[in-house]
Amino acid sequence: MTDSLHRDLLALAREAAHRAGELLRDGRPSDLAVARTKSSNVDVVTEMDIAAEKLITDLISGRRPDDGFLGEEGASAEGTSGVRWVIDPLDGTVNYLYGLPTWAVSIAAEQGGETVVGVVAAPMRGETYHAVRGGGAWATGAWEGERALACRPAPPLDQALVSTGFNYVAEVRAHQAALAARLIPLVRDIRRGGSAAVDLCDVACGRLDGYYERGLHPWDFAAGDLIAREAGALTGGRPGEPLSRELTVAAAPGVFEPLQRLLEDFGAWHD
Ligand code: IPD
Ligand code: CA
Ligand code: CA
Ligand code: CA
């Protein structure tokens, strides 16, 4: 029963992510502008973020009217079925605004408060990543069938390629930049891709050894966290704590603990 529910939720999440991805890829206006700002003047929303969220919530609530929702652009409903959808309709809005290819649609389904399905569609890569709890993590691409994801065999931390992101609020960014400056001599290099969901999937694919960020919301990490864990990565927050807004760390086993310890020593969790 649970397995067939999870399969149904996965199929619906994939359909919604693909449709929203097509809308974003094919419907991007050439004169795309900022519709409004949120926490700061660089925290932008476009009409396409809003249109993609509407497409996803209309599709899912049409099929499953009793489910709850949490979406970045305002989707919020309690629901009565025990299933809640956690949606980032466009993760990487700033990249999308500038025409850079790293952005994604991220959709997770929770049951009883636990993530059971995660889908991240990255249309400009032609790749979609998905996972069902306990069922491994998978990628599908336009050019090949499904392939199982496995994070990279861990190198020592000083040879690890680590990605991060910066919050939209100036004081938080300043602290994050200072932290990155301390970290960079201790690792192979640092990347800033611009989509937390893609960063987490890149850990799952073995394209990154690790990723960390402070200030994420559940819609940024819900799907990618499950995909990374199902690919064998470890995820968490501060040592001994689950990943959260305070701190999100995901890395191949072997890189995870030294990276998490270093971030703790550097005070990565506070502004
Ligand atoms: C942002 C991206 C970015 C991360 C920010 C997020 P958005 O999400 O994931 O990589 O650094 O913290 O807010 O606003 O593009 O959906
Ligand atoms: Ca946003
Ligand atoms: Ca996001
Ligand atoms: Ca977003």
TrEMBL record:
Pfam families: Inositol_P. It comes from the Bacteria. It catalyses: a myo-inositol phosphate + H2O = myo-inositol + phosphate. Its cofactor is Mg(2+). It is an enzyme of class 3 (hydrolase). The keyword Metal-binding applies. The keyword Metal-binding applies. Belongs to the inositol monophosphatase superfamily. It comes from Streptomyces achromogenes. Its EC number is 3.1.3.25. This is Inositol-1-monophosphatase. Keywords: Hydrolase, Magnesium, Metal-binding.
